[in-house]
Amino acid sequence: MLACLLIVFREVLEAGIVVGIVMAATQGLARRGLFIGGGIAAGVLGAGLLALFTGAITQALQGFGQEIFNAAILIVAVFMLGWHNLWMATHGRELAAQLRSAGNAVLRGEKSLWALAVVITVAVLREGSEIVLFLYGIAASTHTDPLTMLAGGVLGIFAGAALSWLLYRGLIAVSLKRLFSITAWMIALLAAGMAGRAAAILAGIDLIPAWGYQLWDTSWLVSDASLTGRALQALVGYTDRPLGVQLVAWVVTLLLLVTGSRLLHSRSTSHGATP
Amino acid sequence: MRNLARLTLALLAFPVAAQADRLVTLDIQNHTFTPSSFEVPAGERFRIQLTSHDESVDEFESYDMKFEKIIVPGNTVTVFAGPLHPGTYTFFDDYHPDQAKGTVTAIAAKE
To answer: Which residues cross the membrane (chain A) (predicted)?
Structure first.
């Protein structure tokens, strides 16, 4: 039961980290609950469907359908996160000001919310389909006691969700003035990590060059197998033995988002208040 | 910009990704790998082909070798691994991590 709890907990936490950051980053946007809830629901639904077709996806694209699918949805998420950060760079200031004065949701950010709803869907879909398959395997198995293991799985979902909630509460506890600059960084790191992960998956099946395997080995410090390693992977894209192309994708994504936001931000402030 | 040019050059200099000629075949049944350990030469990329005879879904995974692939009953999947430094690397079934475990030992080529 404990093993079961841990497996599910890990997957939920990985998706939950993304949801927590997105929730903090959309603080104050009108109707964000609808978009985030919708994103989670679509992800859960998609996870069930994905689990159903895992066999077919695996066999697709010369047996590497799973990898290509995972990399593709990660790349979609990277673009959506990027879109949001650039949008925030132009609207973040007025949003923070309105939040401070009115104290509730005021600004319409539908475009950005759509992008983030997609990110949430992707995160839930990715981790969710693994949970569905895992729990399905337990239910179908005749060797182990399915009820206690299922209980472990459900507890894992709650524990993962609770920890993600704490992350969110911790984030919004910081002052509103700094919230958006903190979440902008977290989203940029999230996107960089996903871009690196996508690159690693594609290099893992020899589709793109690796530019060096195992640039360094920090598994003695934080191992990918540890819970800290997994959390850091979800947060900032950490891996104990990165590929060259993975590091390049990580750095390039981070640089693009940070410099892009800087440029847009300075332009929007030099023109005064945006209409 | 110069870095970008350098990157493009580096990409062009790699006509194909690393060759992986060696294929290791594994089976999983009753959540146990057969063989559960094997040797490969260090510094070479290789492929592992796994066929599942299990009744439930497994996830063929290795933190050490950075692969992760779901395998449904009756299916066969292939993953790439390496090049590895000499040493021992572990792989497992993430859905039954206590039962299904195995190791790869990378052997340094003799001088």
So the answer is: 33-56, 68-92, 113-138, 150-168, 180-205, 243-264
